Amino acid sequence: MKTARIVVAVSFLVPAIAFAWWSNDWKQRTAVILNTSAAGVPVQETLTNLIVPVRLHSGNFDFIGAKPDGSDLRVVAGDDKTALKFWIERFDSVNELGVVWVEVPSTLPGTDKNTIYVYAGNDKAPADSTATSASIADAATLAAFHFAEKDGIAADQTGSIKAEAATAVDANGLIGQSARLAGTPIILPANDKLRVAADAPLTVSLWVRPDAASGTLYVQGSLRMVLTAGKLTVSDGESSVSAGDVAAATWSQIAVTLGSGKLAVYVNGAPAGQTDLPHPSSALDGAIQVGEDYTGLVDELDLASVARSADYLKLEYSAESADAKLIATKTETSDSESSSGSPGYFGILVKSLTPDAWTIIGILGVMLLIAIAVMITKALYVSRTDRANQRFLREFRDAADVLTLTGPQFANSSLYRLYQAGIRELLKRKVGERGRAPLSGPSLDAVKASIDADSVREGYALNSQMVLLTIAIAGGPFLGLLGTVVGVMITFASIAAAGDVNVNAIAPGIAAALLATVAGLSVAIPSLFGYNYLASRIKTIASDMQIFVDEFVTRVAETYGAQ
What we know:
By secondary structure, the protein is an alpha+beta fold.
């Protein structure tokens, strides 16, 4: 069924009302771009009839706007005219999850212009009777198994090849539903469609997610894929290839090709091993077994009557694993200038900004960066100081002798620095030495005055750079307002000069001018929140310092003061 699969994780979808869409009856459209350029997943060949699985979820698709069963979905080619074949594997409007397979006629190499459109949002649309898994396949596909059957009995895309028994399923597998094996294999009975003549080309690809990296993954005649302690080995009876590691608890794609006298193995889209076949490959007949003595998940088993190319398999892996490099999306909105998309609302605003507005916004951007830097550095400084203060205060209150506290663990404590200032003053007066007279009242006052001076300096350190936040709070909105006023003046002046007074001439300039005010508020609002938070923390630390000074002097007076 599959020539290749490109898993489309369509991101940041905003439903759009188009002007010249395939049909105006459909209210949603998403452009899905398959990037095969150097910036995406580069390939060198044109791939035809690609089978594209499009993953839909609440972040990229409006399930509320679509019909509950997804029967209004339609897919159109990049020309926005040609309807494409598709099949809905899963559409869960309650949990807002969906998988839609689409047949893409042609995917060109080296370009980011490979586009398809997904339409939805037409309550009156009937279900497309041609939207079946059998309707999308290329001529080389012998069989494709999605393991999406409700009864768990695996069947190919046509439903003519079915497993002998049902298999447990996992609803959230690689792409929709996956088969879950616990040592008992999936057995696909012998069938003429699955028979491979001697020396005929073949490609087998399979996704696995082993719980423990051991088991026989695939057997058909002499062709075997065996996983032993995470090491993959593929053989055709006479020749074998050791194909590297397959990790447990991780999805991995394994592809094997036979053709042109070679046996080649690919793991996760990359060549993993190859050997020349000394004799023509034997015919592959009989039943197929998938997952003997294997525990884990299995998904997307494909058999094709050609030896797929390295480029094809690289693209297939990147597609099915939802490689973000392969996928780009573009959302059209109701203001689109053409069916190929436009900048949208924000793009119109940016495009209409005048040089003075750019200058103001640039200044505001610098102010925002400075404010963020100040908030982060001050928050870290205040947090370190507060933690160290609490640690020191516990030690101080538990100490029998207030003159004995020391240690690098108090380095960040402002209270400890005040304590050291007091100790210096006491050492000058040789407090605690034998024969030294008790401290007099004036001496205690002098010690307290010295500590108070250091407390003021600590307050300066705590409040340093806070003025930058007050500048951002007060200056940001005014700068933004200045940009808006100047922008409005320029807009009206240009309209007067041109003699054009229609709303289309006025609206973009006015809207862009208001962007400067938005920028100013974007600077002021976070700065205001940050300033109030930091000011509260600083006030608490300052109060702790004030209390500590009194507590320290009292303890010294008790121990070393005159009685």
